[in-house]
């Protein structure tokens, strides 16, 4: 989960990889794998999400692991 603040509000982005191996572009099972092995992919995602809307100021707060992402999804399912 990419943690951002966009226009002064929390704006978390869930980054997911399909569980089916034949549908995966990169092979990871856990956040730690992504964190350790795909630094460039993280940089690309950070750059994209902090710059895709030139009208807003977006601040990167960091990344969250699977547990944080699951909690964020669960939080939004109650709306």
Please describe what this structure looks like.
There is one protein chain. The protein is α+β, with helices and mostly antiparallel strands and 79 residues long. The protein has one domain (2-77). Helices cover 41% and strands 16% of the residues. The chain is built from 3 helices and 3 strands. It has helices at 31-37, 39-51, 66-77, and strands at 2-6, 9-10, 58-63. The chain has a 3-stranded antiparallel beta sheet with strand order 2-1-3, with helices on one face. The relative contact order is 0.24.
Report the end-to-end length measured between terminal Cα atoms. Answer: 19 Å
Radius of gyration over C-alpha positions, nearest whole angstrom:
13 Å
Strand proportion, as a percent range, falls in: 15-25%
Low-confidence stretches: none
Q: Could you list some keywords that capture this structure?
A:
79 residues, alpha+beta, three-stranded antiparallel β-sheet, 3 helices, 3 strands
């Amino acid at each position: 989960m990419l943690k951002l603040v966009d226009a002064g509000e929390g704006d978390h982005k869930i980054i997911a990889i399909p569980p089916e191996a034949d549908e995966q572009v990169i092979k990871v099972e856990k956040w730690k794998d992504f964190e350790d092995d795909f630094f460039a992919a993280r940089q690309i995602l950070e750059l994209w999400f902090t710059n895709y809307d030139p009208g807003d100021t977006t601040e990167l707060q960091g990344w969250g692991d699977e547990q944080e992402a699951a909690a964020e999804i669960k939080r939004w399912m109650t709306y």
